Amino acid sequence: MLKSFGRLVLCLLACLAAVPSIAQRLPEGVSAVRSVEGIDEYRLANDLQILLVPDDSKPTTTVNLTVHVGSRMENYGETGMAHLLEHMLFKGSPTHPSPWAEFEQRGLAANGSTAQDRTNYHARFSANPDNLKWYVDWLADALVHSNVSRKDLDTEMTVVRNEMESGENRPDSVLLQKLLSVMYDWHNYGKEPIGARSDVENVDIPRLQAFYRLYYQPDNATLIVSGSFDPVMALREIAGSFGKIPKPARKLPNQYTLDPVQDGERSVTVRRVGGAPLLYAGYHVPAGPDPDFAAVEVLAIVLGDTPSGRLHKRLTEQGLASGTFAFGFAQAEPGVFIAGAQLAPTQDVDKARAALLSVVESVGREPVTAEELARAKSKYAKSWEQQFTNPETVGIALSESIAEGDWRLFFLQRDRVRDIALADVQRVAERYLLQTNRTLATYLPAETIVRAPAPHRVDLAATMKDLKPQAAAAAVEAFDASPANIDARTQRFEVGGLKAAVLPKGTRGGAVHATLTLRFGDEKSLFGWNDVPDAVASMLDKGTTTMTREQIQDRLDQLRTELGVSSGPGRVTVSLTTRREFLPAAIALAADLLRHPTFPEPALAELKREAITEVEQQRKEPGALAHNTLDRWSNPYPRGDVRYVTTFDEMVADVQALTVAQLRDFHAKFYGARQGEFAAVGDFDPAAVRSALQSAFGDWSAGAPYTRVPHPLVALKPERVVLETPDKQNATVLVRESLPISDRDPDYPALMMANHLLGGSGSSRLWKRVREGEGLSYDVRTGIGWNNFESNSTWQASAIYAPQVRARVEAAMREEVARALKEGFTAQELAEGQRGLLSFRRLSRAQDASLAGALANNLYLGRTFEFSARIDAALAALTVDQVNAALRRYIKPEGFVTAFAGDFKAPPASAPAKP
Prior knowledge:
Distance between the termini: 57 Å
Strand order of the largest sheet: 1-2-3-7-4-6-5
CATH topology of the largest domain: Cytochrome Bc1 Complex, Chain A, domain 1
């Protein structure tokens, strides 16, 4: 209740000042609420909350519906129900019986996700008013009219169970689930959203429908539209679709369960076949909206960052662990802070555990320093900016704040971290990072007990008064991502041996993406180096002659830059994500890493431990084992050739053999800017970029001459292989065939389309049969690895599934391929496939990072986007006869190589019933 009339007047004036400027043009039934830093909030009469985040810098639109329900709202016997409903909405309604097919036809990249406090339904697509209207209409229909039928549940429940089995294969996922279940006595945060297997398998359909009708209502949802769109039109469409839904009369249940203060150490041990030792230490911490959670964000960086974090310095660098980390769960109610360590198989678990707990719980004795706080703030600010400046991620980021209780927490938390003092960070560490608040060890009696503060809820109305919004980002140009416009806007030039293609364009926050590839060596000169080239690339950011590893990371944070390094036979690629004012300096930093690495011995030892740990984790995983087996099948090349595929044992041997001398020798012999490509897309000054490239690489003519290593067609001998992976509840099947075709072949568009219709989309034959029809797999697909030069491309089909239904999965895949070859695709399938595939191609050209990579690749291939335009035109002009002929010309089941990997010797379990 307001205390005075004067306060009421001030409040009204403030609200009027905060409403969006388009309030005068609002459709009937829409009310303006507030505007914060360029994000406009509205409400419908039925209480649907609407957030609009207009940004024309990329020709894409992202729509996200956040339903305020997650696993926290589930009752006894209902675990997994929120996640199961996420799947069920995609099974359709009377108006939209096949949502996935409609998504594909319209080129919508759509999906959903479920967490403890919310469920998301989101789609990304090329900016198009018709697609926006259609997807908003579908969301409104799905919100209240989805079938949620027994027939659909019978097939989708087994898909969800397969997703559950996939998670059961991962030691980190299983360990996290067990950790949370031990940490919480009563609160539902102790239960993973995937749910209990028995609840998912035995879910009661009337109960599921009641859960749906209770929570899936407009007054319990937030619709977020971000990217390129007309706000007035969007509000009109939202009002026309969601506005027809009446406000429900029911009252949502009050969630009041909180756990008591933990009063002693707890522990859990999981033992399974495969993987490597892993440690988690969990601590109860305040809820995300609590002011003290800003300190939790800081402590996660101070303790868990690589390479500056305390855990990295005292465990990883000292050889006690192969990797360390720390993170906090920002949730609506009191959550969790987790610190952890990944170990190599040979490392001492007891020593690592003791060191982990000592570092985390010694913050009281070793206070956080001003330097650590400044570094943490800089890293947090960089991460926050990268979410906020991307119109395709800001909506999802806002949904997490919505799940905590108020979308404006997205900005308030930024300001809290920015303004937090050392004393507050220290106070929070000393109150929560306690032995008695830890889940890892058993209870022991003690002379005195220090308890963490009791959990409490946050008064959001009071806490939001502290938010002081900053100015909204300036509007930017609307960019046309057509091939013709891309080519017209692209500037090309050369700097020494580098070919450059740069496309300056407006972006939110001055964001820019760049990629640089250096090429070197040939088939003979690269022979015998084994893992050395990859290790050189991985070590580039571990120190130079002018900067230490930590200084490099600090410099990247100062420049608000993300830098990634990848390598392949005869190349190294550096990717940059930064802002306009920092791009020249980021190029200079990348040059320092490429030209002057020192390859410090401790960092190499750390890299070797990490690599061996990864091999040990993969060697008994069904997917990794199947891929390695097929990669090696019929491989004619000798060990040492860059095209040779190593066994897991050989991978370990190659890593163990690495030396600093080898790395330095390889770098000195091969690295240089004699040949390469650079591309940048975003907000930058082309002249400044050209000058930066000249300064960085213009005089670097070193390096071995480059000749591409050929990859001629190697015929695969047909085979069917069964690989046993004990104690793995999820199995994998891979099917491959070598194809005598490249992307230069006239059949390229037709075969691309044939693959799309067979298994390359959510409306494909395999998807409809294996996932939608029989519910056998969470993920089934086909794809083609296209060769740009030789007529040697690879077709692959894959699926994951429960081991006991292997025969049904194999039969379904085999039958659908045979049916496609015999009967061919229909004209309707082709028309829908053309619409979907062309939309996805347009969408890919609207991603600045992908566009930068494509520009660089075109420089290497001697192409422009005119090639893409020709392929688009060919796809649009395809006939059914052309597509069916291409499928029959290249896909030959008698030539398939197939690998099944899983625990097929496990005791038989009852298979899912056929629908």
